[in-house]
Amino acid sequence: MKILLRLAIGVVVLLVVAAAVTLFFVDSIARRVVENAGTAAVGVPVTLDSISIRPIAGAAAIEGLAVANPPGYREAKFLTLSRGELEVALRSLLSDQPEVPRIELDGILVGVEQKSGTSNLKEILAGMKSSPAPAGPAKESAPKRFKVDSLVIRDVKVRAQLLPLPGKASELEFTIDEVQVKDLDQDNAQGVVLDELMRRVVGAVMAAVVKELAVQAPGELVAGLGDAINSLGLPDATMTIGGGILDLGGMVDSAGQALQGVGQDLDQGLQGIGKGLGDLIGGPKKE
């Protein structure tokens, strides 16, 4: 009896160790997959400190995601994310179309740097627009396509280093309280592959940043960026700043002109951030 008990305990211990080792390797592989997909999506190196997959709970957590700056900028990183949580429908984990009811990202820092004729924001957006899709794999190894219902991004802090202009501040800081995107895959019933999903997630952050910079910063910083944002194919999205809910759509007109209000004297007729955003995109939504 004692021998059987010892054998049973030994088997349980081995199973626990095997499960821990398996999860370690799964997390390690997943981290590399996310880094590779992010780099392909954004066009600059993307790194991730850790990812923890909890299949029984139907969830995953990521920490310390960073998007590098293009060469030639003062700071090494353009964007950092403190923490993210993903909900995954258990029944879909082993399918080719994992269902992700919700992605929540918390604590993002974006460092915008402007230099003569360009900015890191402009260069990264250009790289996202031109990043080629990976070559199609064989049918039996087709990549998973994620179906994402909701993306919520909270606490986006932006620090912008601007070219010095007479009478204008060379540094700018603001916080976007929340960005919400519904049906991140709404234009593709089959879902989106991981690199396209990451392109849309980063694009949602950048759309909100560009929208607010159009109010607060000189026009040349954001001129022409609306087309690049629109090319990312983002679905309906809103952002919350200063207590108002604002639409992120309608970046540019069909002729590809700069964002509404850019290039004009924003000091005239704009009384505070709230009014400036209202003039730019039509004001808060009505319930």
SSE blueprint and pairings:
Blueprint: H1 2-42, E1 46-54, E2 59-68, E3 77-87, E4 99-100, E5 102-115, E6 118-119, H2 120-130, E7 147-148, E8 150-161, E9 171-182, H3 194-216, H4 219-222, H5 225-230, E10 237-241, E11 244-247, H6 272-281
Parallel strand pairs: 4-7, 5-8
Antiparallel strand pairs: 1-2, 2-3, 3-5, 5-6, 8-9, 9-10, 10-11
Structure, explained:
The protein has 287 residues and is α+β, with helices and mostly antiparallel strands. The protein has a domain at 2-132 and 143-206. It is built from 6 helices and 11 strands. The strands form 2 sheets. Strands 1, 2, 3, 5, 6, 8, 9, 10 and 11 form a 9-stranded mixed β-sheet that branches. A two-stranded parallel sheet has the order 4-7. Strand 10 (237-241) and strand 11 form a beta hairpin. It is globular, with a radius of gyration of 22 Å.
Largest sheet: 9 strands, mixed
Rg, Cα atoms, Å:
22 Å
Q: List unreliable stretches of 5+ residues.
A: 10-25, 133-140, 252-258, 260-287
Supply the number of helical segments: 6
Secondary-structure content class: alpha+beta
Strand content: 25-35%
In oligomeric terms, what are we looking at?
A: single chain
Q: Please state the overall shape, judged from the principal axes of the Cα atoms.
A: globular
Alpha carbon gap, first and last residue: 70 Å
Mean pLDDT metric: 75
Percent helix: 25-40%
Secondary-structure element pattern, one letter each:
HEEEEEEHEEEHHHEEH
Report the count of strand segments.
11
